[in-house]
Specification:
alpha/beta; 9 strands; 28% strand; elongated
């Protein structure tokens, strides 16, 4: 029997403690709402982690056992330790999957993996959002129709300062006229990264069935295919015999330059 995919759902868990409106929607935190529906899928074994825990909830011992890391953050990006952000990046390059949600486009791990500012336009105006599935054959779009709608979301608009995605699965149209690449995939090293736009904290986005389907599909898609440690080994012993040559004349070219 195949082992389950080990999922860690990380959340800074700040809004829910400070804002009563957010707490009413996510009384136990956004991370718990996401972990609850993922935990109902028999393929996954799910744990949660938050910013205020030791080592921001992501010590080596946890990340080593994580196949896919789901990340939500907004108002406390800079409070994440640089060491932890680099640790997440390294694990992705080794093979761990990373699902980046909503305002985590500005998180340290995502920026490190993208190598760009990851900036965008935004507006809070209770706008309807229509998410168009432009790659219906992609595993993340499995079980979805041609599009689905959210009655209210924070607008994210282009230009989104990211590297060209390997695949763009969703493009969102917002009621105010903006459009946004809202579901983007990348390979980074041996790992996979998926960014998904919906999920502003003042909306019950993570209870919406289609959003849950996308995140569930994304976790399965991002599960490791390999796990190769980044140890840069010295291959002292060659596979084939290497002929001994006198390179003194060749090296002397440098002295004539």
């Amino acid at each position: 029997m195949q082992d389950k995919i080990n999922v860690t759902v990380w959340n800074e868990f700040v809004h829910e403690k400070k804002d009563e409106a957010v707490r009413k929607i996510y009384p136990n935190g956004i991370h718990t709402a996401i972990a609850d529906f993922l935990g109902k899928d028999g393929r996954f074994s799910v744990r949660t982690a938050t910013l205020d825990q030791e080592e921001n909830g992501l010590p080596e011992s946890i990340l080593e056992k994580t196949d896919v890391l789901v990340w939500w953050g907004h108002m406390a990006h800079e409070k994440l330790a640089d060491e932890v952000a680099l640790r997440v990046k390294r694990r992705v390059l080794e093979g761990m999957g990373l699902i980046v949600l909503h305002s985590a486009h500005f998180s340290k791990p995502f920026k490190l993996l993208m190598g760009t500012n990851c900036s965008l336009k935004w507006r809070e105006a209770d706008e309807k959002a229509r998410l168009w599935v432009i790659e219906p054959g992609h595993p993340i779009a499995a079980g979805l129709g041609e599009y689905f709608e959210l009655p209210g979301e924070e607008m994210y608009g282009e230009r989104f300062d990211i590297p060209q995605p390997d695949t763009t699965v969703f493009i969102t149209w917002f009621e105010g006229g903006n459009v946004f690449r809202s579901g983007c995939c990348w390979d980074r090293g041996n790992g996979r990264v998926f960014y998904f736009q919906p999920g502003h904290e003042t909306y019950p986005t993570y209870y919406e069935p289609n959003v849950r389907k996308v995140i569930t599909n994304a976790v399965a898609w991002a599960a490791p295919r390999v796990n190769i440690k980044d140890d840069c080994p010295n291959a002292k012993v060659p596979l084939e015999p290497i002929q001994k040559r006198d390179l003194s004349a060749y090296r002397a070219i440098a002295n004539k330059g």
